[in-house]
Specification:
- The complex is a heterodimer of chains A (157) and B (456).
- Chain A is an alpha+beta fold.
- Chain A contains 5 helices and 9 strands, in the order αβαβαβββββββαα.
- Helix content of chain A is 25%, strand content 31%.
- Chain B is elongated.
- Chain B starts with a helix and ends in a 7-residue tail after the last strand.
- The chains are: A alpha+beta (157), B alpha/beta (456).
């Protein structure tokens, strides 16, 4: 750890931490979600800034592929209210892709936002939207908790 | 769930520890330390490369349409959120909605539109009322900015377009004009057995041509018009107008009003001892707010009306409805689907144009809304797929939540119409389909027509 920090210092390039604000569409969508995953993809600054729709399509069909950074599947509570940070994102433009799923592995929410990592960059606001499968996946299920705090403390849904 | 509560989910919440991915938290501290010494990567893209695209939304959050305006604002937010979750209309550039309240006051229309343009919007969605929309159109036309209204149905907006050259037309709407709705009112009067129809209509850009249109359509069908009485909006009392109607002794009354004025008129009718007549309203009162304004659902049980169908039984509307419920809770108010389509179409048109330039987006609105398409339709509720198609260089034909939204040369759309009937909570009147209201009761679909069936 010390060596890498020293190397960065010598190269004149500090790690670039990036905060990601994952915005859930509603409390209901947060409560029905069990796991989340956030991946970062490096983009070609000339041609790649419009890659979000294709990335979302690819993730829905065949998974995350080779991401520059990947949180892996985490309990959804790791993504609540401003709770996500990548400690070091390489400089330049990236696509930030977030998805949420339930225990049955149904993708419930997806979102993508392009942002550039640089010193002092603002947080990345990443809005999620329900997938086509959301309504069917939650139909007939009932919520047993009524707030994000309750869900994350008691493990209810 | 209210939009305020939705927003609260994305606000920083210091009570919880931040999840850090990709490194030990100590590394982050080292990084911050280095940054404090001014060391760190600098931006490589120009400022505007990832800047939000501002779209103005002029809606009626207060005033006589204020009961429905918040729902229309939410419908706009839904479409913007769906597009933004797919990366935005232009590469890396999301939509930022700038929502303003016109108070259902046309006098504010031009000022609000100019203020939005000064704030950098590239298009305007709105207004809701026809009178306000006409005022806004004066500004957007001059500035060559695309404008789409969800709800303005006045025929005067078609006239506005007819009076300018095609390259000067920047107005669109996702609700059809009233020229055919007035015919539906006349058909309803016929079918409901009316013998003397009185017409009570707003004295504005929406109500005046609509009232005249109903009179003409009903006379053409051989009906007797007992009286046609205009009234100004937002008056505390309509005693004089209601008395005039009572004096004409109609057995049916066509009411062209907004929820506020319509509610006041129905209460006054009751107060003045008005007899039992058949009421026939329009799209202006097919709104939960109208029932709220009347105050007593029993007073309007069996109230009929004409309207464009804004909640068609299509996969596109169902997808919109499901997403709306998921995000905001509750049932979308009438014309919410039209508002969603307005923002969705603007997003897709900007994507197709590859720019926010007004004339280019205007031209693209025609392209993305209508055939031909390379791979069939793209649909409301699947805007990420639609954006992928556009990015792939393919022609699209958007099928909206409110209908096919194929714009003609004047920015108009064609849609089916319905005769509806309000049934109070607990009503046992048979109803095959309709819009259930959050507080009970429903707008029952009594009969539907295609546009072709009612062409004069």
């Amino acid at each position: 750890m010390r060596a890498s920090a020293l190397a960065l210092l010598l190269l004149g390039c500090a790690p670039t931490p990036v905060d990601v604000q994952v915005g859930f569409p509603s409390l209901e969508t947060f409560l029905y979600s069990d796991f989340g995953r956030l991946a970062v993809y490096e983009l070609d600054p000339e041609e790649g800034l419009g890659d979000c729709p294709a990335l979302l399509s690819r993730i829905g069909a065949s998974g995350f592929g080779e991401a520059t950074l990947d949180s892996g599947w985490q309990p959804i509570c790791a993504f609540r209210s401003g709770g996500v940070q990548f400690a070091h994102v390489p400089p330049g433009p990236h696509a930030y892709v977030a998805v949420a799923r339930d225990e049955a592995n149904t993708l419930l929410l997806t979102g993508c936002r392009v942002a550039e990592a640089y010193a002092g960059a603002p947080p990345v606001d990443l809005e999620l939207f329900p997938t086509r499968d959301y309504r069917e996946a939650v139909q007939g299920r009932s919520l047993t908790c009524s707030s994000e705090e309750e869900k994350c403390q008691r493990g209810c849904r | 769930m209210s939009s305020l509560a939705v927003n609260s989910l994305v606000e920083p919440h210091l009570a919880y520890p931040r999840a850090v991915f990709g490194a030990h938290a100590r590394c982050v501290l080292i990084g911050f330390g280095l940054l404090a010494f001014g060391c760190g990567p600098q931006p490589t893209l120009p400022d505007e490369a990832l800047a939000p695209i501002k779209i103005g939304v002029i809606t009626s959050l207060t005033g006589t349409l204020g009961t429905d305006g918040p729902g229309w604002a939410d419908a706009a937010r839904l479409a913007a959120r769906e597009i933004n979750a797919a990366g935005g209309p232009l590469p890396g550039r999301p939509i930022e909605l700038v929502v303003v309240d016109d108070e259902t006051n046309p006098a504010l229309g031009q000022t609000l539109a100019q203020d939005l343009i000064d704030r950098g919007v590239v298009a305007i969605v709105g207004a809701a009322a026809s009178s306000s929309t006409l005022e806004v159109a004066q500004v957007t036309g001059a500035a060559q900015l695309p404008q789409i209204s969800c709800c303005a149905t006045s025929d005067l907006l078609t006239s506005l377009q007819e009076n300018v050259e095609p390259h000067e037309r920047f107005f669109f709407r996702t609700a059809p004009p009233d020229s055919l709705q007035s015919v539906v009112v006349a058909i309803a009067a016929d079918e409901l057995g009316c013998e003397r129809l009185a017409i009570l209509h707003l004295d504005d850009d929406y109500g005046e041509p609509f009232g005249v249109g109903i009179e003409n359509a009903y006379r053409e069908r051989g009906g007797t018009v007992a009286a046609r009485i205009p009234f100004p909006d937002e008056q505390p009392s309509y005693t004089a107008e209601v008395t005039d109607i009572l004096d004409a002794a109609p057995d049916c009354v066509a009411l062209v009003a907004f929820p506020g004025s319509g509610g006041t008129i129905l209460r006054e009718w009751e107060r003045l001892g008005g007899p039992d007549v058949t009421w026939i309203g329009t799209d202006g009162v097919r709104a939960p707010g109208f029932i709220d304004e009347v105050g007593n659902p029993a007073l309007v049980d069996g109230f009929y009306g004409a309207s464009p169908v804004t909640d068609p039984a299509t996969p596109e509307y169902n997808a919109f409805h499901a997403h709306y419920q998921t995000v905001f809770g509750g049932t979308p108010v009438p014309f919410s689907s039209n508002q969603y389509d307005a923002v969705a179409l603007l997003g897709l048109a900007i994507a197709e144009a590859g720019t926010t330039d007004g004339p280019a987006v205007r031209d693209a609105l025609h392209n993305v809304s209508s055939p031909p398409a390379d791979r069939g339709f793209v649909r409301a509720g699947r805007l990420a797929e639609a954006l992928a198609e556009v990015r792939g260089g393919r022609n699209i034909d958007y099928q909206g939540a409110s209908g096919n939204v194929d714009f003609d040369a004047f920015g108009n759309v064609v849609s089916p119409y319905e005769i509806w009937r309000y049934d109070q909570p607990g009503s046992e009147t048979p109803c095959v389909s309709g819009m259930a209201l959050n507080g009970g009761g429903r707008f029952c679909r009594y009969r539907t027509f295609t546009a072709e069936e009612i062409q004069p």
